[in-house]
Amino acid sequence: SSSSSSSSSSSAMNALRLRGFVLFRTGMSEMLNNARRIPATYPLVFGATVASIKTAGSDYAAQRYVEGAVEIDKRRSLVFFLWGLLYLGGVQYFIQVRLMTQYLFPRAAAFIAQPLQRKLVDRAGQLTVAKQVGIDMFIVHPFTFFPLFYQVKAFVEGTCPKEALQRCWRNWGSDLRALWLIWIPAQTFNFAFCPVWARIPFVAVVSSVYTVILSTTRGAPASDNAHKRH
Fold first, then answer.
1. What pLDDT does 31 receive?
2. Residue ranges for the chain with pLDDT beneath 70
3. How far apart are the first and last CA of the chain?
4. CA–CA gap between residue 135 and residue 152 (Å, rounded)
């Protein structure tokens, strides 16, 4: 009788453990599924969060590991955090997701959804990708991205907007060459293969490298850059 009672108690405990494991696995699965839906459900918030953290992190890496700084320039880090949050996560979302896919190129999402074999023969879709890359690389970045970047930098540093604009045009050629080297192939892939909601997160990931370059070459305060030139 004692043995039977012990066996019954053990079976009950095993059943409880099994039930607990099943509930835990179900809960984790549901939580992961909800997490996977966040980027597509809240693309603006997700993109801005990823872009701001990534941009500030890339600046930190540039200061600490590329330049070998012992003390991090927090004002400079603030420039890149705000830049990631407001421009990369906000303005760029409006241009690349809203403007391009909903108004300028409403067939863009349909081309992205096609299998590779269909993409290779879809000349109209390929032209749509090329137009998006052209607008982004030869209109948006030269006349919006860089002028705004230098103005945000000047605002945080407390320098004159006119001087910021002059620095922008002075560095324009070299800035664009560095930009195009990385971003023409990257954006071609982005506009051809990434789901619309993933455009800004993709940009944030790729720009980890580009932001280190931008931070190293243009992140230091204007006075520091002037001393370096002399």
1. 58
2. 1-10, 12, 18, 20-36, 38-39, 219-230
3. 95
4. 23
List the structure tokens of 53: 């953290």
Q: Cα–Cα distance between 44 and 164 in angstroms, integer? A: 29
| CA pseudo-torsion sign 217, 44, 189, 137 | negative
From residue 41, alpha-carbon distances to 98, 100, 117, 127 in Å are: 15, 19, 29, 29
Are the CB atoms for 149 and 83 separated by under 8 Å? Answer: yes
Residue 97 vs residues 17, 135, 146: alpha-carbon distances, Å: 47, 13, 20
Contact assessment for residue 59 and residue 211, using Cβ atoms and an 8 Å cutoff: yes
3-state secondary structure at position 131? helix
What's the CA gap between 151 and 125, in Å, rounded?
Answer: 36
Spatial distance between the Cα atoms of 66 and 70, rounded to a whole number of angstroms: 11
Mind listing the pLDDT tens digit for each residue in 184-209?
A: 999 999 999 999 988 988 888 888 77
Q: What pLDDT score does 44 carry?
A: 74
Q: Rounded CA gap, 56 and 218, in Å?
A: 14
List alpha helices for the chain, DSSP H. Answer: 2-41, 43-61, 74-82, 92-93, 108-113, 116-121, 123-135, 146-157, 161-193, 199-218, 222-229
Residue found by looking up tokens 């890496």 in the block? 61
| pTM confidence score | 0.72
| Alpha-carbon span 21 to 18, nearest angstrom | 5
Amino acid at 112: I
Question: How high is the pLDDT of residue 56?
Answer: 87
